[in-house]
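Journal club side-thread
Mid-discussion, someone asked how the predicted structure for our own chain would compare to the paper's figures. Pasting it here so we can look after the session.
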Amino acid sequence: MNADGFLRACEKNGEVVTIKRLTGTRQVAFSVQCLGAVARGAVSDLVGNTVQTADQVKVSDREMNAVQWPKPPRHGDQVVYADGSTRTVLGPAQPDRCDEDTVYTLKTLGG
């Protein structure tokens, strides 16, 4: 089994997300756009009017392979949703191997 089923589901119910990695002393961003599934989590109120959300994002490595983006996504990478909001990846990506493909599950935090 490969990631075709996952990608078909994302075409119907997913969204395009951009994964960014800032590298070097000048913090140059290397980005890749992926079709993914975003499960928005609970919203927590912080101090004042600040809110924070914990989400789960699943993406295939096909787009990463196509542009030779240095996979896997890792702690500190940024995920920009289709609506422009930005989240930060917490912890390592959880890989699910599907023959020649890998689907990564990312836990993100932001607000």
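Post-session note: The helical segments are 4-13, 62-66.
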